[in-house]
Amino acid sequence: MPFSHHSHSGQFCLHAKGTLEEMVQAAIAQGFQTFALTEHMPRDQPEDLYPEEIEASLTPEQLFTTFKDFYHEALRLREQYSSKIHLLIGFESEWIRPSTETLIKNLLQTYEFDLFVGSLHHVGTIPIDFDRPTYERARAAAGGTEEDIFKEYFDTQYRMLSELQPPVVGHFDLIRLYADEPDGDFQRFPEVWTRIERNLEWIAHCGGLLEVNSSALRKGLKEPYPGRHIIQAFQKFDGRLTLSDDSHAVEQVGLNYQRTLEYLDELGVTTLYYLERSTLPMDRDKDRIRTPNVRSVALKDAMGAFAGRSGAKLGIIKADHS
């Protein structure tokens, strides 16, 4: 019963490809049971526009219009394909500066979501996953060393976790994508590792799902996000893991899932968790989202369900922010 809690489409994200409907159709073709539609949240500051958005002369106001269009298209697709796939509607958050919290809370008040993915793509307002030169700029601003930027990343992540309490935590260790040693062990920096354990314990205590994100493999990393030592630490806190492909194109739906599942099996993971849309009415006075049901599946069953599917094949593309 394959599932993913994190995806994007070229219809609503300029560094992705394909329409939202094509992404849904690809998930159906791959035999997905559950697939989450989670476009990037709009940003309200011109300096936070992505390079491709600047090139397209977009404004923050247009991003909000685009997001509204995404939400209504997602509703249409959920209805149209309800007999073939369970679609969750949400968004991927940012945490660029403290005021981002207000933007997120406004989105949660405006729309009815099934989930959102709590992600971090910036350190000190500078993107850390766009390209190596931008990462180096963020590192210099954080103090100049890998340890400096790692500590700042995980401290900022903790603030995001504390304020948002996301139901799904996205690419937990994204900071390693452009690091000097992207496959290195964070435990070589004791102060960094202490922060990682703090964040993992918080996620486990609050019942969040930590996504195992296969997109790291197509970007050339040796292991998915998060790396093995982080998953092993999370297991000690009895944390719950889920699965995401973070697809930005139809050919990336389910890409490297078989390899990811084998990786989890090697680490002794026996159970995965996924979200199911709740049919209970939403209480706007206390609920941020339509609180989803959490279901579990044995890892062995997930491996069997996805074995041999085309999306499970190895794929590596040039690393970028998609």
Q: Would you mind describing this structure in some detail?
A:
With 322 residues, the chain is an alpha/beta fold. It is built from eleven helices and eleven strands. It has helices at residues 20-29, 51-55, 60-80, 100-110, 132-142, 146-164, 190-206, 215-218, 228-236, 257-266, 299-306, and strands at 3-4, 34-40, 86-92, 117-118, 122-123, 126-127, 168-169, 209-213, 240-244, 271-276, 293-298. The strands form four sheets. It has a four-stranded parallel sheet with strand order 4-7-8-9. The two termini are 25 Å apart. The model is unreliable at 310-320 (pLDDT under 50).
Describe the SSE topology:
Blueprint: E1 3-4, H1 20-29, E2 34-40, H2 51-55, H3 60-80, E3 86-92, H4 100-110, E4 117-118, E5 122-123, E6 126-127, H5 132-142, H6 146-164, E7 168-169, H7 190-206, E8 209-213, H8 215-218, H9 228-236, E9 240-244, H10 257-266, E10 271-276, E11 293-298, H11 299-306
Parallel strand pairs: 1-2, 2-3, 4-7, 7-8, 8-9
Antiparallel strand pairs: 5-6, 10-11
Average pLDDT: 93
Number of strands: 11
Rg from C-alpha positions?
A: 18 Å
Gap between N and C termini, in Å?
Answer: 25 Å
- Report strand order across the widest sheet: 4-7-8-9
Shape annotation: globular
Computed structural class: alpha/beta
Fraction in helix: 25-40%
Provide the β-strand percentage band: 5-15%
